[in-house]
Amino acid sequence: MRLVVLGGGESGVGTAILGKKKGYDVFVSDFGKIKENYKEVLTINGIAWEDEKHTEELILNADVVMKSPGIPEKVSIVKKLIEKGIPVISEIEFAIQFTDATTVGITGSNGKTTTTLLTYHLLKQSGLNVGLAGNIGKSFAWQVAENKHDIYVLELSSFQLDGIFNYKPHIAILTNISPDHLDRYNYDYNLYIHSKFRITKNQTEADYLIYDNEDEAIQNWLKNNKIKANKVPFSLTGKPGNDGGYIQDNNINSIIKNELFTMPINELALEGKHNIKNAMAATAVAQLLNIRKQTIRESLTNFQGVEHRLEKVLKIQGVQYINDSKATNVNSVFYALDSMSTPTVWIVGGVDKGNDYDELMPLVREKVKAIVCLGVDNSKIINAFNNVVDVMVETTSMSEAVQLAQRLAEKGDSVLLSPACASFDLFENYEDRGKQFKQAIHNL
């Protein structure tokens, strides 16, 4: 069996290692440059690879192809594979056939990283043998090749779900759906929504779907489509059903199989309404896996949060600097601005993924005193907010953006990096952008 892996990053190299271990003839092809450390791993493992090209005769003879999530389906080599009827699958789909571990699959436009890390934290604290993978951490396939975990918590992007045909999580979480990555879905929101719901398509009556009961796109889809999984909704307004999460008397309540878990909201380590929802989702997973209430309570109290997600960096001369580099879409920024309680200098910009800034207008009017545009092309942001904010400046360097923000901020204000866009115009990725932001603050 010939396995061709497109993309020589973390998921690609992990898949190649698992494929080799399972006796496949493996070839890795990357149209960009493969990082030196990955080249080394491939070579040590005797796996053939190429970079900065796709050699068709070495690819189109595959029995199965694992496509890295970053490669769009409209790329010509992928089109040719699909025309030839060669299955093109995701890393998750490839790896799952080689493990009998239980998986918890987590997707959503926002909150999925926090919910994934929080769920992993809850399960790990309870002493379960649990792995963390998917869109985060070490490749799932790589872990399946090398470790024996009983449970995996997987953060799944819509691109990973697009390459799924048989995979089913025992427990799925859908945190929310808002327009994101529409450039990859022909600017059709319904295609993107459909992508997210692939997480439940193979689930059976023995499985569970945990979801935000207040999310319009989720509600509409569930009205019009039947699912087999048991529904576990959560909501901040009212009790959603027999099972699920809700708020009462400033307590989080979560009922699973007639068992009630309850805990005061003010004891949660994470702040903000969206994090109450993330906590409800993670709690439901812990209850479904029969984790002790005391352990759940302790874990929700001592969770550390996620780097680059509303991360308080420093307070300088009474100004709080906040790193929310992970906010790569409008909906994430909505949460960020909604949680601001002081006048805010907002650093925004990057590669626009088809953003509609309208929903931010009321919050920007209320909270934002100045905007620093950090991107190669800021015209869309300027057109959107020109009449709403008095001060708008443009820059293409992080250190200058932070210096400008410092000049615009007064004691008692906040400076918020929450870009609403991808980072690839000026940075390697959102982590690189967040790290440069923090470095620039320390240099002030």
TrEMBL record:
Compartments, record wording: Cytoplasm
Q: Which residues bind ATP?
A: G108, S109, N110, G111, K112, T113, T114
The entry's protein name is UDP-N-acetylmuramoylalanine--D-glutamate ligase
| Source domain of life | Bacteria
Q: Where is the Mur ligase C-terminal domain?
A: 308-421
The family classification in the record reads:
Belongs to the MurCDEF family.
Q: Which reaction does it catalyse?
A: UDP-N-acetyl-alpha-D-muramoyl-L-alanine + D-glutamate + ATP = UDP-N-acetyl-alpha-D-muramoyl-L-alanyl-D-glutamate + ADP + phosphate + H(+)
Q: Which processes are annotated in GO (biological process)?
A: cell division; cell wall organization; peptidoglycan biosynthetic process; regulation of cell shape
- Cross-referenced Gene3D superfamilies: Mur ligase, C-terminal domain (3.90.190.20), Mur-like, catalytic domain (3.40.1190.10), NAD(P)-binding Rossmann-like Domain (3.40.50.720)
HAMAP family, A to Z: MurD
Q: In which pathway does it act?
A: Cell wall biogenesis; peptidoglycan biosynthesis
Offer an example of a GO molecular function term for this protein.
ATP binding
Keywords, ordered alphabetically? ATP-binding, Cell cycle, Cell division, Cell shape, Cell wall biogenesis/degradation, Cytoplasm, Ligase, Nucleotide-binding, Peptidoglycan synthesis
**Protein task:** Cell wall formation. Catalyzes the addition of glutamate to the nucleotide precursor UDP-N-acetylmuramoyl-L-alanine (UMA).
* Broad class of the protein's primary localization: cytoplasm
Cellular component GO terms held in the UniProt record = cytoplasm
**What organism does the record attribute this protein to?**
Flavobacterium cucumis
Task: Give the EC number.
Answer: 6.3.2.9
Top EC category: ligase
The record places domain Mur ligase central at 106-286
Q: By its UniProt entry, which SUPFAM superfamilies does this protein fall under?
A: MurCD N-terminal domain (SSF51984), MurD-like peptide ligases, catalytic domain (SSF53623), MurD-like peptide ligases, peptide-binding domain (SSF53244)
